[in-house]
TrEMBL record:
InterPro entries: HTH_MarR-typ, MarR/SlyA-like, WH-like_DNA-bd_sf, WH_DNA-bd_sf. Residues 9-150 form the HTH marR-type domain. SMART domains: HTH_MARR (SM00347). Gene3D superfamilies: Winged helix-like DNA-binding domain superfamily/Winged helix DNA-binding domain. It comes from Roseibium salinum. This is MarR family transcriptional regulator. It holds the Pfam family MarR_2.
Length: 161
């Protein structure tokens, strides 16, 4: 009689670790492909795309500090990207009335159009990269990831044993 494969006899923690490593490898591979496509086909970067994406979600604009918080990057990173977008006429920075230090960034109509063009390509790349997933797979995986994300939002400390 054959015994069960070794990975079926190990603790669930080891199986979870393997799932994490597969998720990480998958995300890193997809991100590398997106970075390559943005660079080679459009002469832009993923951080720049991310800033434009955030600003597209907030047409009235975001304070620079809100933008950096939203993207989970430093104020300096966001400032450099927004400055470059502004130089190219894709974004503007507007002073906040009553607060001389604060500025709101938003896409210009040209920037919004450019982002929409890039976003269509981005969606197509993701669709191609995940083409092996059926609608049922997408729904199940999305539900599983929602469960993981909700656990993270609880901000419980990790108790390594």
């Amino acid at each position: 009689m054959k015994s069960a494969p070794a990975h079926q006899q190990e603790p669930l923690s080891k199986a979870r670790l393997r799932v994490w490593l597969k998720l990480l490898k998958s995300v890193n591979g997809i991100e590398a492909e997106i970075r390559r496509n943005l660079r080679d086909r459009h002469g832009t970067t993923l951080p720049r795309f991310d800033v434009m994406s955030a600003l597209a979600r907030f047409p009235d604009g975001l304070r620079m500090s809100e933008l950096s918080t939203f993207l989970k990057v430093s104020n300096g990173n966001v400032t450099g990207i927004v400055d470059k977008l502004a130089q190219e006429g894709l974004a503007v920075r507007v002073a906040v009335p009553g607060d001389r230090r604060a500025q709101v960034a938003r896409l210009t109509p040209k920037g919004a159009a450019e982002f929409q063009r890039l976003a269509r390509h981005h969606e197509g790349w993701i669709d191609t990269l995940l083409a092996g997933l059926s609608a049922q797979h997408v729904e199940e995986l999305s539900g599983t990831l929602d469960m993981i994300l909700s656990r993270q939002s609880e901000k419980e400390p990790i108790d390594a044993q």
